[in-house]
Amino acid sequence: MHTLDEYTSKLKPDEIKSSTNIVDTCFKSVLSSSIICGHCKNVSKVNEDCHDLSVPIPSVVSTATLQERVAEFYNREMESYRSHKSEMLNPDKILEQINFDKRDENDENEVTLMHCMWAFTAKEVLSGENGYNCEKCSHLDQEEGKRVLRDATKQLSIQKPAKVLTIHLKRFGHQLYSGKNSLLAHLMQSGGGLRKNSTQVTFPKSLELGSFIHPSSPWKNTMCKYRLFGVVEHQGTMNSGHYISFVKQLQVNKNGEHRRGEWYRISDSHAALSSQLEVLEGSQPYLLMYELVE
User: Quick one: signal sequence residues (predicted)?
Assistant: First the structure.
């Protein structure tokens, strides 16, 4: 475990030059957006900075179990992966991590943080009016007076992981994937209307994100392991509520060495001793904070 000062003290000279402030140094990750043209198979890849991952929450519906919908979704994802292994995430590795993180193997509707991450990185189909303007093969239609758009597949992945990872679970808003033509939208969607999603999400104390790292990333062969140290929970409804947090205490010994201690529950100005059991099984997370284990 590390403090912000420890994170910055370990930076290389080129990292210091490229980092504008301590927020970027600690919280910035780099996401890769890969688009594969369905016509000419050209790959366009763009990297973009972000400071948190804002992930959707798959909702449980009565028509099929979450496990059944995941199995169907897996088959669709695998079909795309086989054609573009150098650019796409491996569904086998993601599904393996989902099964590993489940607390109750007999619960077919248990939603885990890995389900949310898979929804976040799900392949998105671009077609019709939302088609892709391919730099290689899109051309101007003389009769229509506009460029011909191509069908394409888009996927987000992690190019460079953050030292301190903040995951925001989308509990507030309209229907999941509204306006987004994702393969996942037809399998793992919530009901319409403005509302709070109160689905319980299982999350681990130790998180591995290796299965979400882009194949070209220098981190591709690492486990990319994180350890939980903070949780923010929203109690209440869409119209009113209260935020509380759980924080794992940072302790410093006489030699200046740092380590994490006990869990504390904090509500406004009140702090009370908590436990790992209360954090993992008694909270409904809105924000999750993990530290990269180096």
Answer: none
* Residue written as token pair 């995941």: 70
How does strand 53-55 pair with strand 140-141? unpaired
**169-173 long-range Cβ contacts below 8 angstroms, 24+ apart:** 169/55, 169/57, 169/116, 169/201, 169/285, 169/286, 169/287, 169/288, 170/54, 170/55, 170/56, 170/57, 170/197, 171/57, 171/196, 171/197, 171/198, 171/234, 171/286, 172/196, 172/197, 172/238
d(CA 231, CA 203): 10
Q: Among positive and negative, which fits the CA dihedral 96, 97, 98, 101?
A: positive
Count CB neighbours of 3 within 10 A: 12
Among 113-122, 136-145, 196-205, 230-239, whose mean pLDDT is lowest? 136-145
**pLDDT tens, residue by residue, 128-157:** 989 999 999 987 665 666 788 999 999 999
Residues 4-292, CATH architecture: Alpha-Beta Complex (3.90)
pTM for the full predicted model:
0.84
DSSP 129: G
Query: Phi and psi of 68, rounded to 5°?
Result: -65, -40
66 neighbors 60 (Cβ within 8 angstroms): yes
Q: Find all residues with CB under 8 Å of 260, minimum gap 6, and list them.
A: 1, 227, 229, 248, 249, 250, 251
Q: How far, in Å, CA of 294 to CA of 291, rounded?
A: 9
Is there a contact between 101 and 204 (Cβ–Cβ < 8 Å)? yes
| Cβ pair 228, 206 in contact under 8 A | yes
